[in-house]
Amino acid sequence: MGCTVVAGAFWGDEGKGKIISYLALKDKVDVCVRTGSVNAAHTVVYKNKKHALHMVPSAFVYEKSRLLIGAGVNVHVPQLLKEIEETDVEDRVGVDPQCSIIEEKHSTKDKSSAHLKGLGTTGWGVGPAQEERVRRTGKTAKEVPELAPYLTDVALEVNTAIDAGKNVLLEGTQGLMLSLFFGTYPYVTSRDTSASAICAEAGVGPTKIDHVLLVYKSFITRVGTGPLPGELSKEEAVKRGWFEIAAGTGRERRSAPFNFDLAKRAVMINSATEAAITKLDIMFPKCRDATSFEQLSGEAKEFIRKIESATGVPVTIIGTGPSVFDIIDHRELDT
Ligand code: IMP
Ligand code: MG
Question: Does the pTM of the predicted model rise above 0.85?
Answer without folding.
Answer: yes
